[in-house]
Amino acid sequence: MRTARTAITIFYCLLAALAQAQVKLRMVVWDGDESLTVLRGAIKRFEAAHPGVTVNLEHVDYNNYFQKLLAQYAGDTAPDVAMLDPGNFQRYAKRGALLKLNDFYGQEPG
């Protein structure tokens, strides 16, 4: 009986820890200062609406952006969110580097 209570206590402690788990997302963009200001504001609103989630916004110069992003994908250090234009989107999609979002359409967040 004591083992069962201990197991149940551990289970509930794990659930509590998971409920308070922090999610950290990494977002990489090439935009300039004006767009970065808008993105930072959007990220603040997103984080306020989703407690426990933080977004680390990284800026990379456009001239090096796609080369660096491709190297990160190859090295398994890719960001969670990346800015892509239509032409480069196809390059990454063909390599299987993008997560299909089809299953998420129509679902309620949370």
Question: Helical amount among residues, as a percent range?
Answer: 40-55%
**Secondary structure category:** alpha/beta
Please tell me how large the radius of gyration is.
19 Å
Order of helices and strands: HEHEHEH
Head-to-tail CA distance between termini? 36 Å
Tell me the total number of β-strands. 3
Spans where pLDDT lies below 50 across 5 or more residues: 3-7, 9-18
- Oligomeric composition of the shown chains: single chain
- pLDDT averaged over residues: 81
Question: What sort of overall outline do the alpha carbons produce when their principal axes are compared?
Answer: globular
Structure description:
With 110 residues, this protein is of the alpha/beta class. The chain is built from four helices and three strands. It is globular.
In short:
By secondary structure, the protein is an alpha/beta fold.
Provide the fold topology.
Elements (H helix, E strand, L loop, with lengths): L1 H18 L3 E7 L3 H17 L3 E7 L2 H13 L6 E2 L3 H9 L16
Parallel strand pairs: 1-2, 1-3
What brief labels describe this structure?
single chain; 110 residues; alpha/beta; three-stranded parallel beta sheet
